[in-house]
Design a protein that fits this description.
The complex is a heterodimer. Chain A is mostly beta strands. In chain A, strands 2, 4, 5, 9, 10 and 11 form a 6-stranded mixed β-sheet that branches. The termini of chain A are far apart. The chains are: A mainly beta, B mainly beta. Chains A and B meet through strand 5, strand 9 and strand 10 of A and strand 5 and strand 10 of B.
Chain lengths: 110, 116
């Protein structure tokens, strides 16, 4: 099945550092979403983006909808231990099914 | 309950066995999705229901996979003659409107299927 490309695949950072990750697609979407998944749980929505160029924040998280509509970016500022988990992007065309990325695994060391 | 409930939480099957995975969506939610998540990968779409109607089954990998939602609430994903490549976490998600209305799309914790 189709999956979006996420990079980096994994990140190992120290508490307090900022984190950046991105997601790219070969096709356009009109919605970009970012989810976090903890071990043994389902994905939980962090941020939703609906317009090319849009920049949206949710606390320490900031995400951007790329102007080509084929990519998106997520930044986490001042990371803390509870940020540990797997971050997935997802693209959507109208209210169609979500297409997920391959995931970025984040590990935060104290 | 308050969230999407899936059962069993874990299922171990011998190759060739049939399995049935259950999803209880949030009460009143119209749309229901099944996703398959292989180890180290993102979720991949399997099928979508709007009430009892299965509107999209394009993601089902083979005719061994079958899903139903006969009364528009609980859904069952059935896998016949399981194979080792079916080993994955099966996630169910529901939302109150038609299609995947994002802020209101809620995932269950999944069923982890291991085929030996």
């Amino acid at each position: 099945g189709q999956q979006l490309n996420q990079s980096p695949q994994s990140m190992f950072i120290q508490e307090g550092e900022d984190v950046s990750m991105n997601c790219t697609s070969s096709s356009i979407f009109n919605t970009w979403l970012w989810y976090k998944q903890d071990p043994g749980e389902g994905p939980v929505l962090l941020i939703a983006l609906y317009k090319a160029g849009e920049l949206t924040s949710n606390g320490r998280l900031t995400a951007q909808f790329g102007i080509t509509r084929k990519d998106s970016f997520l930044n986490i500022s001042a990371s803390i231990p509870s940020d540990v988990g797997i971050y997935f992007c997802a693209g959507q065309l109208y209210t169609d099914k979500l297409i997920f990325g391959t995931g970025t695994r984040l590990q935060v060391f104290p | 309950g308050a969230g999407v409930s899936q059962s069993p939480r874990y299922k171990v099957a011998k190759r060739g066995q049939d399995v049935a995975l259950r999803c209880d969506p949030i009460s009143g939610h119209v749309s229901l999705f099944w996703y398959q998540q292989a180890l180290g990968q993102g979720p991949e779409f399997l099928t979508y229901f709007q009430n009892e109607a299965q509107l999209d089954k394009s993601g089902l990998p083979s005719d061994r996979f079958f899903a139903e939602r006969p009364e528009g609430s609980v859904s069952t994903l059935k896998i016949q003659r399981t194979q080792q490549e079916d080993s994955a976490v099966y996630l169910c998600a529901s939302s109150p409107g038609q299609g995947a209305t994002n802020e209101k799309l809620f995932f269950g914790s999944g069923t982890q299927l291991s085929v030996l």
